[in-house]
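Reminder to self: tokens first, then the designed residues, so the page reads top to bottom the way the pipeline ran.
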């Protein structure tokens, strides 16, 4: 089954998933557009860093079809504002099915409570800037929680001295 058909079948059962995918893919399409302003008219912006917006949908507040339509209507303007501010988007939609392992499972936290529904990687100047982007997201009015996290550099193992053996 193609990924589109698989998504379409899932979307019929979960209309919120359809909204999230459409929203984030729309963001990616708009972020690919290049601004037409002349660079000399704008001051040099500070370097951008990568952040991730982690979207969680409150399971007790499923959106109605009318709310999904309203949110879909508000998203293009939100994306255009972010794009105008020089942000690039890299959306990742997550399937609803999941498994929990580790401490969360052992601590008795109910699996699937406020599940992560999407990740949106964005560029922002700093954590405060990325938080402002998240605070302006239209989905917050419809039972969505957004966590903002900076991307960290991967941890690299310390170099081993020549001739050393690992245990």
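Designed residues (167 positions):
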């Amino acid at each position: 089954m193609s990924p589109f058909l698989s998504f379409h079948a899932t979307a019929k059962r979960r209309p919120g998933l359809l909204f999230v995918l459409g929203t984030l893919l729309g963001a990616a399409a708009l972020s690919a557009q290049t601004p037409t302003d002349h660079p000399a008219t704008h001051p040099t912006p500070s370097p951008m860093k990568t952040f991730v917006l982690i979207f969680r949908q409150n399971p007790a507040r499923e959106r109605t079809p009318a709310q999904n339509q309203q949110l879909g209507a508000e998203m293009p303007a939100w994306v255009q504002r972010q794009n105008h501010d020089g942000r690039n988007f890299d959306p990742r939609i997550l399937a609803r099915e999941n498994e929990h392992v580790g401490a969360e499972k052992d601590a008795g936290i109910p699996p699937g409570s406020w599940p992560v529904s999407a990740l949106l990687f964005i560029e922002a100047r700093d954590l405060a800037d990325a938080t402002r982007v998240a605070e302006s997201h239209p989905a917050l009015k419809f039972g969505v929680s957004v966590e903002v996290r900076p991307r960290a550099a991967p941890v690299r193992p310390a170099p081993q001295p020549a001739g050393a053996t690992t245990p």
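The longest helix spans residues 65-84.
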